[in-house]
Amino acid sequence: MATLEDTLTAKRTPLYHLQQANQPDATGWQHLGGYAIKAEQDEAQDAPACGLTDLSALARVGLRGKKAATILSENHYQLPAAPNQALRQEDGSLVAKLSASEYLLLGSFADDGERISRDELAWQAAERAHRLPDAYLLPRQDTHAWLALTGRHASDVMAKLCGVDLSPKAFAPGHVAQTSVARANAIIINASQADLSCLYLLVDSASACYFWPILLDAMQEFEGKVLSIMALRRYRQE
Q: What 3-state class would DSSP assign to 149?
């Protein structure tokens, strides 16, 4: 099986050109979209008060239709009880219910998204063979970039950009908001766990390079920094 080091490279994300063109300079800072953020040699320290990670290389897929819930249940996914809720699976993957008949599946750090990738391939084959009745796949890997905003100031950052109250008391773990962020559509999922506060942002792939500098700008007040996916996984396991 491929590992994170083998597969989760910047060239597989919509932010590839930003991440390639803006390497750390001699001072140890990297300048993404004109904003200086401390580079990754500091990742051995404690998790920052606010961090931004591009998770777009991890697997994700959507499934919609009358039989979507049945298909997911048959494949041993636990489903949220109502729309705009998300449920973490035993393997660490996440299932979000976006409407009565639409689901979004996000891959796990534990297996590098392997389960979601494997199931998507099986569903694609079934779809081609017309054996996926009353349901169809949504290629979220292609259509949506996936960003993670972490740390205790994650909701403070989002308060600058979104009219929805995303504070921990109002937006608990497992809550989903389909709303406007910085005047663009986004899906926000509270994916926090006991060890780390975390908001997932799913945004149109074509808008990823618009969102990245906006988030970095909003993070500066809280001394935010860009984190690699490897660093974020380590923080979540500590």
A: strand
